[in-house]
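# step 3/5: fold
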Amino acid sequence: MFKRNWLFVAAFAGLTFAASPLAAQQSGDGGSAEGDTRQAGQTPNNSPAVAAAIDRLADEIAETRVEQSDPYGEERNQREQRDILAQEEMAYWAWAMFWAMVAQTFLALCALIALLLDLRQNRKSSEAQIRAYLSVEPLTLRLNGNTGEYEVQISILNQGQSPAFRVKTAASFYVGKMEPAEAEIMRSEPRPEIGRAALCTIQIARDIKSSFQSPQNLNKGQIAALRNGNIHLFIFGFVSYVDAFNQLRETKFCYFQENLPLPPQDGIFARTDSEWEIAPFHNETT
């Protein structure tokens, strides 16, 4: 702005200097023809310079007025440009923050799902540790060597860490070889149950005993085949119960006996000392 003021002063001084000969010449004798001729000759020569000086002076005055009317215009333009750049940068970071929040939300959702699955697995593990487990084992076989009647007593033991409720036991028998027995016992249709269902509760580390008598007696040929080990006597069935978590559970069992000792022929039930073997099928628990 100061430079333009100096230019303005210089232009004004030049204009004054250019106009001063004309004023001096007009204030002279005023009547000489030679002076008029010289004045007329100089005026056309000085007119373009004066007009150019006047134009430059007008431009400088206009620029000076603009600067004086808005002295902070350039600074304001720079500030507006910086504001635009700042807004663009803020928009970029807002977009980046949006996707960062989306990713964070997704990761939090995955972590929540993993936590829920872990809690579910921990609950299953805890239930598996403290739930009731019932095991079945045959104890004795009582056989009437005269009539072929027989019955088997089994023991149901709770090996879990909580009681077993509404225990129900059912069993049946099969006399024959191993392969037909597996096909018969594992068939889809249910076998008839022996005895009447009696619901009970088995406490921790306690057992109950239950006896099952066959509805069909053994004949002399079957007793002889059992003694020789040609066929086997199978007892199989299931024990259903409800655990402490109100889940219905079931234990399937199957045992067989071979080389049956010779029973007495006195017409009474006699306990045999033979051992039971676990069958390779129909033994599982839920």
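# step 4/5: annotate
The chain has two domains: 2-71, 134-285.
# step 5/5: archive (pending)
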